[in-house]
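Re: [ENG-882] Designed sequences occasionally contain unexpected residues at chain ends

Forwarding the minimal case from QA. Structure tokens:
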């Protein structure tokens, strides 16, 4: 799985690159388009389509480049700072005897990640620093698959159904998000109605099947790749098997602004920029049209999980939608694991020159490693935040996101309202009953936030806890149904010495290691009650 060696990258001019690599069941030829000027600091990969062309015949590189330019693939790839990926079977007769596992093999050798160059994911282990295998860069949940003649027949015969393989975190569904089929010679028989199909130049007998069996279809006599993409193909994403329709932030009345600021590198930086004098920090801001016109605004910083991106956390956690609904400024930080809590505070100070950030209503939330970054804010800069919502992870008390001792005396006496949540079925340690470090974190939280109820249990005696997850029950308990996921968010709310509910602990039934929209909205409802 993956490429052991970096492929040979050929510079073809005008900021474009081209490379090839042979895998056991297919050959891949990748045209990397010119990137957005911000693409080296803001990861646009989550939003970019994975443009896969199952070429009808084994073309030469010059032919593939001409094909991409002539048909509009190059323009799409340039717009999204991505690549056009040409695929051809390694079998002797091309698509006629292509491996049935070809698409699954392709997806298994594809990744979307924070580390990439020239259309290649160059992942490394954050804790050991060791480089891992290289992968084709592509958002496997946005596969836009194109077939022509025999390759279209292959898609129709093998991929208009549920396809399983290697998803983002392990085995899962990898069914294409959308397919374009031109000049079919076989009669398709779609096995599910949620695979969007663009049918080009096919007879009415075939088109009538797509109309009947495909909930989303576009029937065309002639291909117009760019128009069909912008009007149809780009809408679709397949997430954990389900087809989703992408929002258009302009239609929501929102601005989406990628950017960066340069900050001084603090001594405790143990990321890629350690031992530099300064470095850039990327971000993406979302806000409603007109929000910034009437004075200072509440602002939320969000931190993504390890290997994810600013766009990923904003969309998969639904934070941009929540910002749209409740009217606050969302700042999603890119590759925050390369920055410290101190550097985040300098970033906020610089962003105040661009946005009317209300210092009294500054909040932060994060998922997984981003949850750990939120705990860094609690430990190191509690006086800056009105409330925090770390989710799904913690290091030991006193350690920062790098797993190193915090660079200062950690917070011991400045309460900060906290909403902490985790999945009840997660394979990773998130909740007190799962790991002692999680138990110790909640005990520390109770002490600093001056919670009335004693946290006097021990981790060793967890089999005797009154509450199997948190060890103690809240002073107030709420159960909120998440109908979209058929689960229950159970909130244990704890009073502090002033009689305020400033500590809320939430667990989500049936949830693994993920961050859900429903939970984030409840977190915002809690946080937004407070000002610093």
């Amino acid at each position: 799985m993956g490429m052991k060696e970096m492929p040979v990258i050929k510079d073809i001019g005008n900021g474009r690159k081209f490379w090839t690599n042979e895998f056991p069941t297919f050959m891949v030829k990748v045209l990397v388009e010119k990137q957005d000027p911000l693409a080296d600091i803001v990861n646009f990969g989550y939003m970019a389509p994975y443009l896969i062309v199952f070429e009808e015949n084994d073309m030469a590189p010059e032919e593939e480049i001409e094909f991409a330019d002539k048909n509009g693939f190059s323009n799409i790839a340039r717009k999204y700072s991505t690549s056009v990926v040409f695929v051809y079977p390694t079998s002797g007769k091309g698509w006629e005897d292509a491996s049935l596992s070809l698409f699954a093999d392709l997806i298994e050798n594809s990744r979307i990640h924070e580390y990439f160059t020239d259309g290649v994911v160059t992942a490394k282990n954050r804790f050991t620093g060791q480089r891992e295998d290289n992968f084709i860069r592509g958002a496997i949940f946005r596969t836009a698959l194109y077939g022509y003649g025999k390759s279209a027949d292959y898609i129709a015969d093998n991929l208009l159904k549920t396809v399983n393989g290697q998803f983002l975190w392990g085995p899962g569904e990898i069914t294409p998000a959308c397919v374009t089929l031109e000049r079919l010679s076989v009669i398709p028989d779609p096995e599910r109605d949620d695979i969007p199909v663009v049918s080009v130049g096919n007879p009415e007998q075939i088109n009538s099947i797509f109309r009947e069996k495909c909930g989303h279809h576009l029937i065309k006599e002639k291909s117009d790749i760019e128009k069909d993409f912008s009007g149809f193909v780009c809408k679709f994403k397949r997430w954990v098997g389900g087809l989703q329709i992408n929002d258009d932030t302009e239609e929501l009345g929102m601005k989406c602004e990628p950017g960066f600021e340069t900050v001084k590198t603090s001594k405790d930086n143990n990321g890629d920029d350690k031992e530099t004098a300064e470095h850039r920090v990327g971000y993406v801001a979302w806000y409603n049209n007109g929000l910034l016109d009437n004075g200072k605004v509440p602002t939320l910083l969000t931190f993504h999980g390890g290997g994810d991106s600013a766009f990923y956390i904003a969309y998969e956690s639904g934070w941009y939608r929540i910002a749209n609904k409740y009217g606050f400024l969302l700042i999603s930080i890119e590759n925050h694991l390369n920055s410290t809590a101190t550097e985040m505070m300098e970033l906020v100070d610089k962003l105040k020159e661009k946005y009317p950030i209300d210092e009294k209503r500054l909040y932060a939330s994060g998922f997984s490693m981003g949850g750990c970054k939120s705990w860094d804010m609690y430990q190191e800069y509690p006086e800056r935040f009105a409330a925090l919502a770390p989710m799904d992870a913690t290091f030991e008390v006193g350690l920062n996101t790098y797993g190193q001792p915090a660079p200062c005396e950690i917070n011991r006496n400045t309460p900060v309202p906290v909403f902490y949540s985790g999945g009840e079925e997660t394979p990773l340690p998130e909740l007190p009953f799962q790991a002692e470090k999680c138990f110790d974190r909640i005990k520390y939280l109770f002490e600093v936030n001056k919670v009335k109820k004693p946290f006097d249990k021990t981790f060793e005696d967890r089999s005797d806890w009154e509450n199997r997850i948190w060890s103690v029950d809240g002073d107030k308990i709420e159960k909120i149904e998440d109908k979209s996921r058929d689960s229950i968010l159970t909130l244990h709310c704890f009073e502090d010495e002033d009689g305020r509910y400033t500590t809320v602990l939430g667990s989500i039934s049936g949830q693994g290691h993920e961050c859900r929209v429903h939970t984030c909205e409840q977190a915002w409802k809690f946080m937004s009650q407070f000002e610093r």
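QA comment: On inspection the terminal residues look reasonable. The chain has a mean pLDDT of 96. Proposing we downgrade this to a documentation issue.
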